[in-house]
Amino acid sequence: MRRDIFQAIADPTRRAIITLIALQAMTPNAIAENFNTTRQSVSKHLRILTECQLVKQEQQGREIYYSLQLEKMKEIDKWLDQFRKIWEARFNQLDTVLSTIKKQKK
Amino acid sequence: MRRDIFQAIADPTRRAIITLIALQAMTPNAIAENFNTTRQSVSKHLRILTECQLVKQEQQGREIYYSLQLEKMKEIDKWLDQFRKIWEARFNQLDTVLSTIKKQKK
DNA sequence: TATAGACGCAACCATTCGGTTTCCCAATTT
DNA sequence: AAATTGGGAAACCGAATGGTTGCGTCTATA
User: Is the residue at A21 inside a domain?
Assistant: First the structure.
């Protein structure tokens, strides 16, 4: 059972849940009300998100509040970094090319 | 058949392929040699990556070279932006807290 | 022109996934 | 204490996924 962030954010419902609880903790029922799906379905998604530490839970009486572990999101950012470096390098190359053309015009 | 970037990068083999062809275009056979998988399997992954425009192909004789469409990767970056904003805001809040503590110490 | 190599595509198969249903537990309410 | 409510866990099901095998096509080479 591979359970990593990339697989976690692959599902559109899970991405929506993440966005929803990014700012404030919410209960499974409250989350489910925002989509047309059942609590059980949301609960399953939350389990997957919890398993890869993208989400943390906090019991409050009989309610369980779920919130986003923002730190974990940085892992995606970190993975993107290798490509960011490439596209920045390309951009600089383009910049060089452009300034060369500029010089030639002069 | 949902076919978006997030679903595309969910598979670890596909992420590896992306990294592999980020810098230089490669043929399916060459890509397959880098993992212990078959050409057909790689071919299928490449099809998925092509379908969501993460990869482009270029025929050269009887070989087809695949390369990464870096631009498309920015969509992930763009999606991450909403969370980046939040964690930066939190960081600034922390900053405020810290400076308040500092002042109190004085 | 015949043969070999590089590929894509379709069919098939085992596994996984997302969702629903059902059941059970614990905390509130009455 | 009994009924209600929030929520997790397991069983089940249809759909999707990843991989393999086999076949057809096109290009290059002998």
Answer: yes
Instruction: State whether B41 and B86 are in the same domain.
Output: no
Structure confidence at residue B90 (pLDDT) = 79
Q: Quick check: A80 and B80 CB within 8 A?
A: yes
Do B60 and B105 belong to one domain? Answer: no
Examine the predicted complex and report whether its ipTM is higher than 0.90: no
Q: Considering only CB atoms, which chain A residues are within 8 Å of B19?
A: 82
Closest residue in A to B87 (Cα–Cα): A70
- Rounded CA separation A44/A51 (Å): 11
Going by their DSSP bridges, the two strands A55-60 and A63-68 should be labelled as antiparallel
pLDDT tens profile B45-54:
999 999 999 9
Domain with B95 in it: 72-106
On whether any CB of chain A is under 8 Å from the CB of B59, the answer is no
